[in-house]
């Protein structure tokens, strides 16, 4: 009886599987990412006659347009009852693989940090039988981390861990707690608590971004810590900057989910959009904790 029932469900999922029509959004998203990459690169490198910021702005606008249209289509399909259990599993697998790709993305940057700190810097100081090479490349180099002096003699100051970074750590940890409370409320069908806790989570994410902006201003104006401040400045701003971008993206996702909850779109049995946003947010929090330890503390 169990086998027959399972086969019947599988057959029903197969028959009801929804195949969407061809969409323009993937190619629009590709154009947006191309403009963002070219704009960011040209802004840093001063290419294209100083038009890099305009390309970056145009790419961001196209990306927002793409996300708005694509989210709208998916929400409409979901609310129309077009998705089956098999489609729901596809969404879960897709989100899982997406988060895995994000893990690999940050692993590459952490790998660069570890290589610079534990291999390249000691070698420049003469470790591992590299004394002769060190004398040729940088005779007066003093190995240590963080590197606050670049080869051209520019000096900077390392960012401390116990000011804004610690405050932002507390903020993100608090946002994970409020999101978990919202998730429990979703499973219980307590819509009022969902709205309150999910809204508070989004607000905490925006507060985090505000303080990170304040931290960057402090770094540039008072510490002389910049993106071009040697390998320390490179790794610091790439890791914290990309993480901040992920916080922004996660807050946008959760804000859209919050709006959908206000419109009554989700139920205790069907709320994968909320789950996907929660997975992503908790992943971002874990990345920040790792970042806080290896970039700020150690």
Judged by helices, strands and strand pairing, the structural class is mainly alpha
Distance between the termini: 60 Å
Q: Overall 3D geometry?
A: elongated
Mean pLDDT: 82
The main pleated sheet reads as: none
- Succession of helices and strands: HHHHHHHHH
Q: Could you say what the CATH topology of the largest domain is called? A: Four Helix Bundle (Hemerythrin (Met), subunit A)
Strand content: under 5%
Tally of separate helices: 9
Q: Runs with pLDDT <50, length 5+?
A: 1-6
The CATH class of the largest domain: Mainly Alpha
What's the helical proportion of residues? Answer: over 70%
Radius of gyration: 24 Å
As an assembly, this protein is single chain
Q: Give the tally of β-strands.
A: 0
What is the correct CATH architecture of the largest domain?
Up-down Bundle
General description of the model:
The protein has 298 residues and is mainly α. The protein has helices spanning 2-16, 25-45, 52-79, 85-124, 131-137, 164-188, 191-221, 230-262, 272-297. It has 2 domains: 19-82, Helix Hairpins, CATH 1.10.287; 87-297, Cytochrome c oxidase, subunit III, four-helix bundle (Four Helix Bundle (Hemerythrin (Met), subunit A)). It is built from 9 helices and no strands.
List the helices and strands and how they pair.
Elements (H helix, E strand, L loop, with lengths): L1 H15 L8 H21 L6 H28 L5 H40 L6 H7 L26 H25 L2 H31 L8 H33 L9 H26 L1
Helix pairs in contact: 2-3, 4-8, 4-9, 6-7, 6-9, 7-8, 8-9
């Amino acid at each position: 009886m169990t086998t027959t029932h399972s086969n019947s469900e599988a057959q029903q999922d197969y028959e009801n599987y929804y195949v969407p029509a061809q969409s323009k959004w993937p190619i629009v998203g590709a154009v947006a990412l191309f403009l963002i990459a070219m704009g960011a690169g040209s802004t840093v490198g001063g290419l294209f006659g100083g038009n890099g910021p305009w390309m970056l702005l145009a790419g961001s606008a196209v990306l927002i347009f793409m996300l708005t249209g694509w989210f709208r289509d998916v929400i409409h399909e979901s609310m129309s009852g077009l998705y089956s259990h098999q489609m729901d599993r596809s969404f879960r697998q897709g989100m899982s693989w997406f988060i895995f790709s994000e893990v690999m993305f940050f692993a590459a940057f952490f790998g660069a940090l570890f290589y610079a700190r534990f291999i390249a810097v000691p070698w420049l100081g003469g470790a591992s039988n590299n004394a002769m090479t060190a004398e040729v490349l940088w005779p007066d180099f003093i190995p240590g981390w963080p590197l606050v002096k670049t080869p051209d003699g520019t000096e900077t100051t390392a960012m401390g861990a116990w000011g804004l970074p610690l405050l932002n750590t507390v903020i993100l940890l608090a946002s994970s707690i409020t999101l978990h409370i919202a998730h429990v409320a979703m499973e219980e069908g307590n819509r009022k608590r969902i709205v309150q806790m999910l809204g508070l989570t989004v607000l905490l994410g925006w507060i985090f971004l505000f303080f990170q902006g304040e931290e960057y201003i402090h770094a540039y104006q008072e510490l002389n810590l910049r993106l071009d401040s040697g390998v320390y400045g490179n790794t610091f701003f790439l890791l914290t900057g990309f993480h901040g971008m992920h916080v922004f993206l996660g807050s946008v996702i959760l804000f859209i989910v919050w709006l959908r909850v206000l419109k009554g779109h989700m139920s205790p049995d069907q709320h994968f959009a909320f789950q996907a946003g929660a997975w992503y947010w908790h992943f971002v929090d874990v990345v920040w904790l790792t970042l806080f330890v290896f970039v700020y503390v150690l």
